[in-house]
Design goal:
By secondary structure, the chain is mainly beta. It has 3 domains: 105 residues, Structural Genomics Hypothetical 15.5 Kd Protein In mrcA-pckA Intergenic Region, Chain A; 54 residues, OB fold (Dihydrolipoamide Acetyltransferase, E2P) (Beta Barrel), CATH 2.40.50; 51 residues, SH3 type barrels. It is 7% helix and 38% strand. The chain is built from 2 helices and 19 strands. Strand 17 and strand 18 form a beta hairpin. The mean pLDDT is 92.
Amino acid sequence: MSRHLKRLAAPRIWKIPRKEYPFAPKTIPGPHPADRSVPLLIVLRDMLNVADNRREAKKILASRAVKIDGKVRTDLRYPVGFMDVVSLGDKHYRALYDVRGKIRLIEIPEDHAEWKLVRIENKTVVKGGKIALNLHDGRNILLNENRYKTGDVLKIKIPSQEIIDHYPLQEGSVAMIIGGSHRGQIAHIKEYRVTRSPTDNVVIFEEGFETVKRNVFVVGVGKPEVTIPEVSAL
């Protein structure tokens, strides 16, 4: 399997120059899909500007100075995706979409780097009658009770995965759109409409538009829990 791809064919969420060089690194299989994640090399070299080239980025990773969600990562092609926390020394960043639909790293204080938001994609009953929550970043959390719904978002400690808080997909919640033409926009949920058919459930927003459930990621109730990328910084 190829270890690189043409820059012109790279996912549109990557904020990289498309015509300056012909090739770009390719993510390895990991917690995020290839079209919704960025290789760690791109993060260090093109987004954080702490390395000028691949060799320098490799040295930084070899020093075990980079952590993703509290765990040391050393592979240049490790995928960094939405809501991941990237730590480099005493600096911490959260991966979010900006209003142009690009993945951006937003600097956050140290206490915010101790947690992240994860969306419940699916639920499974496993041995012993426990409920396994399948989360958007590849994680699984086992619970004794069926307390949460798919589409809800959990605030968890990293890397322990202890649940701190819960943000339901319902009226009054604040969400970031992670797909479609409104990707990166913050909107307030007006109605969550469940359709009794094979078609996707629909979320309607106070801002005057609607989208399917899979494009909606709740980030708080009343106000966002995460720092939102500023338009002026684009």
